[in-house]
Amino acid sequence: MTKLFQMPTDGSGHEERLLDSTTTNRATDWSSDGRYIVYRNDDLRTKTDLWALPLFGDRKPFPIARSEFAEAQGRVSPDGRCIAFSSDDSGQPEIYVQAFPIPKQRWPVSAKGGSDPKWRRDGRELFYISADRKLMAIPVTPGEVPAFGAPVALFGEVAFDSIREGTAYDVSADGRHFLILKTGGSPPQLNAILNWTSLLKK
What we know:
Layout: E1 2-6, E2 16-21, E3 24-30, E4 36-43, E5 47-54, E6 62-65, E7 71-76, E8 82-87, E9 94-99, E10 106-108, E11 114-119, E12 125-130, E13 135-141, E14 147-148, E15 152-153, E16 169-171, E17 178-180
Antiparallel strand pairs: 1-2, 3-4, 4-5, 5-6, 7-8, 8-9, 9-10, 11-12, 12-13, 13-14, 13-15, 16-17
């Protein structure tokens, strides 16, 4: 059984249990208005699915993307109208954007593979990692029916760390700076100089 909890970050209160389940669940996002928690549910019948837990009303969870394919990495857009996620229903992971919270429409937005979507704070750009390990950006025109431009590579191949349960990068609010968890290479060398004051006399 996996449970979801929330707790104030300032330590002013106790943890609150939000969800009990007999399956494995992992939170992937919290909508900017604080009304929904998006989480991934592991199901032996349907692989991984995306669900939303409302933090109002009867707080009854509902499925966002549930099929025989693997849906994961759900990220709600800043305006709360859409959710971006990865799905392998084409045979490999790709990025899709779907209306939220009611899944009325869905749009494929990546090209030749994609994972780990992230929104710019104003919702006018969507980032993801391509199958060939490049950080991609898609221009977005937000709205009830959003419009998406063609994906553009921001950098060459980057040695992103592969984190199944988390994320390999993050982006600043303005979309101009990136924090990337990389693998490979040698650790930096640290040199210690002992009795360094004696060198000042020479």
